[in-house]
Hints:
Elements: E1 8-9, E2 15-16, H1 30-52, H2 57-94, H3 97-110
Antiparallel strand pairs: 1-2
Helix pairs in contact: 1-2, 2-3
Amino acid sequence: MAKHEEPVTDAAGCAHCTPPTDKKVEQPHKKALVNRVRRIEGQVGGVLNMIEDDRYCVDILTQISAVKSALDGVAIQILSTHARGCVRQSVMDNGGDDAIEEMMGIVRKLIR
């Protein structure tokens, strides 16, 4: 955590941003997220090997699709934590308009 006040923890045990200007946040399931991203990293390495080994295009594309799906899963998990933590707290503190707009901006990026 950055040098600031302790994070607020909600009923689910999720720590989230305090104050809203501090963009660092403690992920409640950090170890699991790190493990998932490391597996995805391995999948990307596998795609690279497939390309280097001149594998069949459809097989490579299938692996790329799996990587994208895995990354989407990580994004959904982090977005859920953000909504239940940072955004919920912002709504309770000040109506949450800025936090909701920020979250909707990232949702728009994710669905492109």
